[in-house]
Amino acid sequence: MDIYLFLIFLAACFAAGTTGAVFPTGPWYQALNKPTWTPPNWVFPVAWTSIYLLIAFAGARIAPLSGNAYAMAFWGLQIALNTLWTPMFFGLRRLRGSLPVMAGLWIAVLGCTITSFQLDLWAGLAFVPYMIWVTIAAALSVEMARLNPDQVPIKPSEL
Questions:
Q1: Full set of structural domains in the chain with CATH
Q2: HEC assignment per residue over 6-68
Q3: Contact between 66 and 119 (Cβ < 8 Å)
Q4: What residues have CB less than 8 Å from 116, skipping those under 6 apart?
Q5: What is the model's pTM?
Q6: pLDDT, tens digit, for every residue of 104-158?
């Protein structure tokens, strides 16, 4: 694995992750009705840090391989949608509006997982925790939207 490729993919991951710092959960999130199975707050940064390290590893493994076009396209799509979801959900507080982004993210991560497995076993395995986590996050997002139907979104001009 090329360490420079890994660092480039890791930079993309942590750039996406900065949206969590820009749009923190705060009191608004704490006041929402949440399903009983919502993970404790400390789980999220641990999970995301681990996932970002794993998918940077996967990206670095598949980037130099021939026949990687779909894998790289899915990798780019998943990191873009990953970056978009946090501002939609936490920034604009669009619980329902974030669901199409989450659906696209889930599909992109599935695409990454499948195409990575086709190219490299270790890269495919590295995407499995992300696939599990994004499935939990999608279910959590749907439940949060269902449990908080009166949540008023913020207009971009109010940010």
A1: 3-19+39-149 (1.20.1260)
A2: HHHHHHHHHHHHHHHHHCCCHHHHHHCCCCCCCCCCCHHHHHHHHHHHHHHHHHHHHCCCCCC
A3: no
A4: 58, 62, 71, 123, 124, 126, 127
A5: 0.92
A6: 999 999 999 999 999 999 999 999 999 999 999 999 999 999 999 998 888 777 6
Q: Token digits for 95?
A: 């619980």
Report which residue type is found at 98: S
Structure tokens at 36: 């009983």
pLDDT in tens, 66-88: 999 999 999 999 999 999 999 99
Cβ neighbours of residue 4 under 8 Å, at least 6 residues apart?
none
Picking from 103, 99, 98, 78, the residue whose alpha carbon sits closest to that of residue 87 is: 98
Task: Please state the length of the chain.
Answer: 159
Report how far Cα 10 is from the mean position of its chain's Cα atoms.
14
